[in-house]
């Protein structure tokens, strides 16, 4: 078993430059290192594939990658099961609550990149978890670490990435009390309201 590596803060390609955000490589430098190693040790990509059992007489690289992708997507099955049991038309989870459902942490990209939550199961295998259950991501706040799903009524893949939509509190026709608020780095403010208790 290969030992798990941790980024050292210096690009692994050998350029000697510092990396950011706990990454192993600067942008594009992983391909430079990959090409150098494959060409030096094997002579090229065809020889590399053949040496590892891929090719006309061996494994199909594309099929192997598809199996790997579906295996990774399988870890989101608990979310599919949870949404299928949900009786309401809309449900909001904190990221921590989603991690409780999954039984493991969300990937780092879920907290850093809004496209992770895109309703596209072609580009995002994990999106099958909610789309196959008949739900879609309606809105997400990376700063607030909350995501809202709404029911679609069936399998749904709109092929679009989630736009930069944040939580919006619609006007209510009942007395409300400000419960909490927070502000996004871009200046947008989010508020949480609760019904005001009647005076007795």
Q: What can you tell me about this protein's structure?
A:
This protein is an alpha+beta fold. Among the domains are: 1-48; 73-151, no CATH class. Helices cover 29% and strands 16% of the residues. The protein contains seven helices and five strands. The chain has a three-stranded antiparallel beta sheet with strand order 1-3-2. A hairpin with a 5-residue loop joins strand 4 (176-183) and strand 5 (189-195). It is flat. It starts with 28 loop residues before the first helix and ends in a 5-residue tail after the last strand.
In short:
By secondary structure, the protein is α+β, with helices and mostly antiparallel strands. Helix content is 29%, strand content 16%.
SSE layout and pairing:
Blueprint: H1 29-41, H2 45-51, H3 61-73, H4 77-84, E1 90-94, H5 95-102, H6 108-112, H7 128-131, E2 135-141, E3 146-151, E4 176-183, E5 189-195
Antiparallel strand pairs: 1-3, 2-3, 4-5
Helix content: 25-40%
The total count of helices amounts to 7
The proportion of residues in beta strands is 15-25%
What is the overall silhouette?
flat
Enumerate the strands of the largest sheet in spatial order, edge to edge or round the barrel.
Answer: 1-3-2
Give a short account of the largest sheet: 3 strands, antiparallel
Task: Give the radius of gyration.
Answer: 22 Å
Poorly predicted residue ranges:
155-173
Order of helices and strands: HHHHEHHHEEEE
Secondary structure category: alpha+beta
Distance between the termini: 67 Å
Mean pLDDT: 76
Number of strands: 5
